[in-house]
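Repro:
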Amino acid sequence: MEGELKLLNAAQVRELASKAAEHGFSRQIDPAKLNRLNTETYTIAALTTPAAGGPDAPVLYHRARLIIRLNGRTDPWRTYLEITDEDWAALPDAEAVRTAIRAEEQE
């Protein structure tokens, strides 16, 4: 599971960031940066710490490193975000997103 990749669109990043704030996770994204998300690109999320919080934690979560394109910036911005286990599992993996994009391009 560690190193697992997901591709997220801007709406998914905003939703996950909102949930991280609701849960009070230590790794969150500055709301000012969320307003600068490039909506025409994908964010890469790589799992760095699987199943943090332990079995007694109220919410099982993972820490992921995000590589994000922000408007007005030429280089990608790298940050960390904590994502619940349930949300991480619901995200499509990078290969599934890539396959869907290629299928759309061929139509």
